[in-house]
Amino acid sequence: MEYLVKSVEDTQKLAKFLAKFLEEEDVILLDGDLGAGKTTFTQSLAKALGIEEVVNSPTFSIVNEYEFNKGVLYHFDLYRIEEAEELFDIGFEEYFSKEGIIVIEWAEKFINEIPQPWLKIYITKEDENSRIFQITGIGNKWEMFLEELKKYADSGL
Fold it and tell me: Has this prediction a pTM greater than 0.70?
């Protein structure tokens, strides 16, 4: 599904809509060019989950953890990771057995190391304010989410 957002406010609305569906052990994959809006979307999602801390891209730390009233958000940035072996060195696979929501920026680099099911969002920058979100999902939950998102978008998000 393609979804056009025309402003940061639209991005926040999309993140808020997604947040209503999230449960522990859900995995969100984010991809797109530098500056496309992956971190902005993650910040909007964190805010929608009730996280009050400042959310920054974990480019150097690889993962940041944010607690909120319903659990933990694990925010990964795989940009600086070169080889899959490095993922194992940081205990990447262990996060998938923890209770929490996982958001992974630059996920495409290691898509084969990320267990399914997941929701994937590829963000393309159209202009200064507009972005196209190409959203796909693997698993029944995400197929249902995409159906609900289409209804929501058709109603004029």
Answer: yes
